[in-house]
Design a protein that fits this description.
Length: 395
């Protein structure tokens, strides 16, 4: 088997999920995934079965094919996970389970698989937050008289703590992200257009075996927005010397695992005193938050620290600080809990060893602009391991 991880690793994942299912009274679980470029929703199925559909997620249903790019894993304790996909001839050597079948309509096939088992008990549907209503109707019709409950975080709960093997993947991803972000920022500071700088970053990602969702860039009078060009992430404009420039890998995706470091600099490499102070304050705050994060620490306590630190420096607001009132988030096979913000996580959420996080801050200064900074790290008991090593300052 040529999966990314060993069979034993996948079996341990299945064991943890089944244990959680028992605690919650789930007799079985139907876990939905979506591929075809929609990396944000492939994570649960990728985690359980190492499957990702390359079929277009934008293909319109037709008399032959329905729900292309969608897949499902049927979990029932005591049985190998059953994978139902849209590919009639998958790379079976890459799949973690041997119980796999391809279908022109994988969602109806998932419902039929449930009906054939005649499971006595409640079935957890995992993925109700993105499963189209049309495909839910197909599942429900084919499954027949089944008692359903929704549990969209069932697999995410197992995914929060990374295994040693997953940490190694993240370390390699961190090296790739660092090289890519270095090229992006060097281009923005050195006179390239936004699009040219992004092209250099993407080239490094792709030649290193990674991809990206988007690389949003902003500069000058667009610096208060996440990106100068919302459709592509980067305009063809060239930053003028003295413009604040911000580049973000949103995100590097390596073997399905996500990192999203970002930096702010000044085109031409000669910041004003106010620009220098703004960027330096961002770095200082992120470093202080990383130092405060340890296993067992309440997420709310770190969020409060972020609020105190930013209150000393933030003047005004931007699209980012308003839209994302947080100081970071878990990351893995997409964004994960916890979100480091008082309004975005539960009061009893705590950091745990083995979590991978993005720690970030957005600072606004009237008359100067918006700066931001993000690092990615693994949480350890004896000190956190930063994964992204691009320079903090580009002057």
């Amino acid at each position: 088997m040529r999966t990314l991880f060993t069979r034993e690793e996948y079996e341990e994942r299945w064991r943890r999920v089944h244990e959680d299912m028992r605690r919650r009274g789930h007799a079985a679980a139907l876990v939905i995934g979506r591929g075809g470029g929609s990396y944000d929703r492939c994570g649960d199925v990728l985690y359980l079965a190492n499957h990702y559909s390359p079929a277009s997620g934008h293909e319109v249903d037709n008399p032959l094919n329905t729900a292309r790019s969608f897949s499902a894993v049927l979990l029932e304790e005591g049985r190998e996970p059953q994978l139902l996909i849209d590919d009639p001839e998958p790379r079976r050597d890459r799949l973690a389970t041997g119980h796999v079948s391809g279908h022109n309509d994988p969602m109806s096939a998932a419902g039929r698989a449930l009906a054939e088992r005649a499971i006595d008990g409640t079935i957890a549907l995992v993925g109700a937050d993105f499963l189209p209503l049309k495909y839910w109707r197909l599942i429900r019709s084919a499954a027949g008289n089944v008692a359903w409950t929704e549990d969209d975080t069932l697999i995410q709960r197992a995914r929060r703590i990374k295994s040693p093997a997953e940490m190694e993947v993240f370390r390699e991803a961190g090296e790739i992200a660092t090289r890519s972000l270095d090229l992006l920022m060097a281009g923005l500071v050195g006179g390239m257009s936004e699009a040219e700088a992004v092209g250099e970053a993407i080239r490094e990602l792709r030649r290193s075996g990674a991809v990206s969702q988007m690389i949003p860039v902003a500069h000058g009078h667009h610096i208060r927005h996440w990106t100068s060009e919302p459709l592509t992430g980067a305009s063809r404009d060239v930053p003028r010397p003295g413009d604040l420039v911000r580049g973000w890998l949103d995100s590097i995706i390596y073997q399905g695992y996500w990192l999203d470091p970002g930096r702010t600099a000044v085109a031409g490499g000669r910041p004003s005193a106010r620009q220098r102070s703004l960027v330096e304050n961002c770095v200082t705050i992120v470093d202080a938050l990383i130092e405060a994060i340890r296993p067992g620490v309440l997420v709310h306590d770190v969020a409060r620290l972020g609020d105190r630190l930013t209150a000393c420096h933030r003047q005004g607001s931007s699209q980012m600080s308003t839209q994302w009132p947080l100081y970071g988030h878990g990351t893995g096979l997409y964004w994960e809990h916890p979100y480091i913000g008082l309004t975005m996580c539960e009061a009893d959420d705590r950091f745990e060893a083995g979590m991978v996080l993005g720690v970030e801050v957005f600072l606004d200064s009237e008359g100067t602009g918006t700066a931001a900074h993000e690092q990615n790290l693994i949480v350890h008991a004896g000190g956190n391991e930063v994964l992204t090593h691009s320079p903090d300052f580009w002057w």
